[in-house]
Amino acid sequence: MNKGILEVTERIIERSRKTREIYLERIAEAEKKKVHRAALGCSNLAHVMAAESAEDKAIMSGMKAPNIGIITAYNDMLSAHQPFADFPLKIKAALREVGATCQVASGVPAMCDGVTQSQPGMELSLFSRDTIAMSTAVGLSHNVYEGAIYLGVCDKIVPGLVIGALTFGHLPAVFIPAGPMRSGISNAQKGKVRQEFALGNVGVDVLLQSESACYHSSGTCTFYGTANSNQMMMDVMGLHLPGGTFVNPDTPLREAITVSSAQQIVKLTQLGENFMPVGRMIDEKSIVNALVGLMATGGSTNHTMHLIAMAKAAGIHINWEDFDDISSIVPLITRLYPNGSADVNQFHDAGGMGYVISQLLDAGILHEDVNTIVGKGLAPYATEASLVDDRLTWTPAPDKPRDPEIVSTVDEPFDHHGGLTMLGGNLGRSVIKTSALKPTQLCIEAPAVVFESQEELQAAFKAHELDKDFIAIVRYQGPKANGMPELHGLMAPLGALQDKGFKVAVVTDGRMSGASGKVPSAIHVTPEALDGGMLSKVQNGDIVVLDVEAKTLELKVSAEELAAREEAHPDLSHDRWGTGRELFAMMRHFVGSAEMGASIFDSIGEEQA
């Protein structure tokens, strides 16, 4: 096992010792009943069974077979979640075959960041993660399930489901993906049309035609953003059945994986042959594996918050130093858009997750000795799934890349660095994704141009005020200010300026899309501007230095002058109402910092510990 990975793992174990111990004690207390519905009174149980068939009522009242809850994020506006429409019926039928019952425990909200980008609704996006966790808890609180199946794919949805699942850590958990849509036009083509539109060279009709050719059917978007980074992590954490993450919807193989995944959870219940509650299954090594997978594949920067919040739900504490240290150890062995031109379908055909896991296990970079939904050890995930005579079969992943432009080897990687770096300095702490940057973009020193929304920057771009070298300071975009929306609208204008030869970068307390990376972006700056962060004191023309190799983010203004400056106090009232934002005032008030996971549960967790 790689020495550096072991050191980070041991550091996390020691840091988490007290909270993990408390968490496991609580799981043990909740595990005392093998059949949870047996604790209900007859009237309570009658409510549970009222709508079930006579056959299922007999099984449920017999108290000898597990009842599995489904938490579903289905809606048919999200292409990624539309395939889940008939999953509950398929899962019920599959479980009936093995003598178990199943009920939809609850639906959880599932918003699409692709729809809300640059819209007011994006200011609810980050908070939807913790809302999903709480909605999951409401569904499972009926205490009538021996395990839970989770149906979700996209950005905040899987992290929210994981937090909810780990809160009910005494129950086994299986996550079932829906699969990516088939490939449309390339992401490079789509990005080019977006920039041409930003420059005014093409109209909205051309832009819509391009976008519709990219997002064209049911299934997950095919670029490697947060949604597909989620799916990667579910694989390396052992929460998926092996080999099925990037199998397209509505195929016989996808159907077989769904059925087999559903039946697998019966074995994991206390009435099964291999009881494994998710709270014990996911441990410090599992979390480190997720970190390693994130770096090896150039995954989404959103997980510098989500993974912290997910781990904390299991009593495990990780931080940005852990991300930074692991990134310095783990090589980048995939080239997926935005870090390359390939999409996840091409990645899957080139060897996919089985190949990546095989490479990382052989190199001693992933922990093999972890528990998964298929048993002890991660080795079963170094495989590919297929149908042979209509039977689901696994074969070893290829030992060489099928397409060396998309996947490489650990010995000869695309980069010896995982592509994520933590920056620090008098502007605060932040993270930056470097896997899509050119060497000339790793150090930018330029005057600041200050904005308090992405719309201000877009207006300045259209007015041709930004044809120069500069670093955009986009502030008051943190979780306390306005819910920390993704600032996806910055990428087209800044990318266009970069292509003209200008040195540009962005520094913000907001987020970037998981599909971003072309423009140097120091994001998640902590403390945020509204919480006393130094961003609130930056003025136009101040020299800012963003240096990836030195890991610094500095404002070249003396400490004395900064101390004398007053903080900016913009009017944020327009972010307080409309599109449901008034209902989330409590979350803006109680949310923690980006570095702590941007969670409303932060202070609650500390009180419980």
Automatic annotation (TrEMBL):
It catalyses: 6-phospho-D-gluconate = 2-dehydro-3-deoxy-6-phospho-D-gluconate + H2O. Gene3D superfamilies: IlvD/EDD C-terminal domain-like (3.50.30.80). Its EC number is 4.2.1.12. Its cofactor is [4Fe-4S] cluster. Pathway: Carbohydrate metabolism; Entner-Doudoroff pathway. [4Fe-4S] cluster binds at residues 154, 221. Pfam families: ILV_EDD_C, ILVD_EDD_N. InterPro entries: 6-phosphgluc_deHydtase, Dihydro-acid_dehy_C, DiOHA_6PGluconate_deHydtase_CS, ILV_EDD_C, ILV_EDD_N, IlvD/EDD_N. Belongs to the IlvD/Edd family. Catalyzes the dehydration of 6-phospho-D-gluconate to 2-dehydro-3-deoxy-6-phospho-D-gluconate. This is Phosphogluconate dehydratase. It comes from Thiomicrorhabdus heinhorstiae.
